[in-house]
Structures are given as C-alpha cells and as structure tokens.
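User: Run a structure prediction on this.
Assistant: Running it now.
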Amino acid sequence: MAVAIVLLILGVGGTLLLAHGVSQSPPASLTQHSWKLKAFTFGGHPEALLPKVSITLTFMGQNQISGEDGCNSYGANYTVSQGRLHLDHSYETLVACLPASVMQQEGNYIQALEQVTTYEIGPTGLLTLRDDSGQVVLQYSPVPPA
C-alpha cells in the first residue's frame, strides 16, 4: 500500500494556486527479490545458523512480508519510512519440526525479527536489519532470480 500526501494551496474563491504530492511506497530495492538469512543475533549474541536450514524473507509490494523460517511459513504487515521499518500483525504456521534445534532457531529468529526498527542495503547488496539500539539483528543476502 502506497501512502500519498498531497498539499493543495487554494486562493480566495477556491482557485488552485499550488499542488504538491509525495508518495511513500516500499523501496524497489527491498521488493525486487527475496532475501536469504546469512547471520543473526539473539539476546545480544551471534546465533549459529543450522546447516541445510534456509530462512528467507520477501518484501511484497502490498506492504506485506512473507518467508520460511526453517520449518514454518511466516508473514506480517510492514511500513517503511526514511530507513525505518515497522512490522505488525505477524503470523506463523504451527508445524512441529525435528530436530528440536530447528524449532529453537525458528523461535529465536521470529523474536529477533520482531525487534527490527531500521534497515539498510549496503553497497554489496547485503540487507541489514537493526534494533532500536542500532545493533545488527539480522543480515540477508539477495536471492538471485530463478
């Protein structure tokens, strides 16, 4: 969902003197492809990613995210503004997975994702998500188109 802000300045009698519009859509750089998790921090400590477990994130143009967190699917609504990222109304499927370490990583990942407040895409294409303190919480690499 794009947000449009329009400023209209009307003269006496309702004559339009000036119109200026600003649109706030998700940046194309977020939505142009999916992202694969490369690193994350949980509880202030780096979390080792399990081998053969892929965690993904996709920003869709309708201000929704979706992804796979190793076992289950998840999603949420999101808004972006000047490098700030806000997620809300999150959901997750509830399939039990083995080994238990997959479920543990999945829970830690979702909790880390809920802490995100800012994002940036670096010159190498790495997507970095940070919390309110500026600490790196999640880092993703772009997934090449299939």
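The chain has one domain: 26-142.
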